[in-house]
Each structure stands twice: as C-alpha cells, then as structure tokens.
Design brief:
153 residues; mainly alpha; 9 helices
Length: 153
C-alpha cells in the first residue's frame, strides 16, 4: 500500500512539473530527487513517462533552442551551456542544432537591427563594434555575427 502511494505521489509531482514546461530526463530526475522520493520509484516513473512520450530529450532540446533563439535572442554558445546544465549531451545538442543554424542567423540579424537603431548616433565603426560585442556576449556563433553585421551595413 505504501509503495503504491509513493508511486502515485511521484507521478503527480512529475506531471505537475510537466504542466509548467517540458523537462529533460536528467532535470526531471533531479527535481524529483530534490523532493525526497525514492530513487527506484523515480527511475520507474521516468521510464513510464518516456514510454508515454511525455519525456523526450530530443523534443525538449528542440523546444529549448527555438525559444532561446526567438524569444531570448541567445546564440549557440549560451544555449549549449544551458542545455548541458539540464543534462543534454553535446552529441544530442549537435544533432538538434543542425536544424536551427539558419534560425540563429535570423535571430542575430533581428537583434543587430534593433541595436543598430539604438546606436544610430554613433559612427559606423563604433556602432558595429558595440553590436559585435553584444552578439558575442549573447552567445552567437561567429558566422551568425558576421551575417548580422553584413545585414546592417
């Protein structure tokens, strides 16, 4: 009886976490452990969520990348670091990232155009330098930075 109650509590907690947003498998495991649940029950529930396709690291990675590129305007370097902290392997990131290379370029261009308007009183050299630095700080790849700078010329 007690084991079944524990399983139900783990299930409820996991579904509550998924109601807010998708999670990586490692992130779900960590969050459930933090709540003090039995590791064996957590492992069983995670396997069940994977079978039900409620947990899927590839889908999670794609959603995270799209959100960070379009809403947060963060580039590859920062997105990769965030996903690594959530337990996503470098191999999976590289696989999913290939679908978003063009989206990174567009995101960098959008951000650069907005900043170019903010810096319109600066001379061209200073404006380009500030935009380059901003794009770099936001984690954009060198290719995306160069494309964005060409776009604002």
């Amino acid at each position: 009886m007690k084991a079944q109650e524990e399983r139900e509590r783990v299930r409820t907690a996991a579904l509550r976490l998924l109601r807010y947003r998708d999670r990586s498998i490692a992130e779900m495991r960590q969050r459930l452990r933090r709540k003090g649940f039995d590791p064996e029950v957590i492992a069983d529930e995670i396997e069940q969520l994977i079978r039900e396709r409620l947990l899927d690291d590839e889908r999670f990675t794609g959603i995270w990348i799209r959100h960070k590129l379009t809403i947060s305007h963060k580039g590859k370097r920062l997105v990769r670091a965030e996903l690594a902290a959530k337990g996503i392997s470098a191999e999976l990131f590289a696989l999913v990232w290939e679908e978003h290379v063009e989206q990174e370029r567009r995101s960098a261009e959008t951000w650069a155009k907005a900043k170019a308007e903010d810096y319109n009183l600066l001379d061209s050299f200073e404006r380009r330098g500030r935009i380059r630095q901003g794009l770099y700080r936001r984690g954009y790849s060198q290719e995306a930075i160069e494309a964005a700078l060409k776009e604002i010329e």
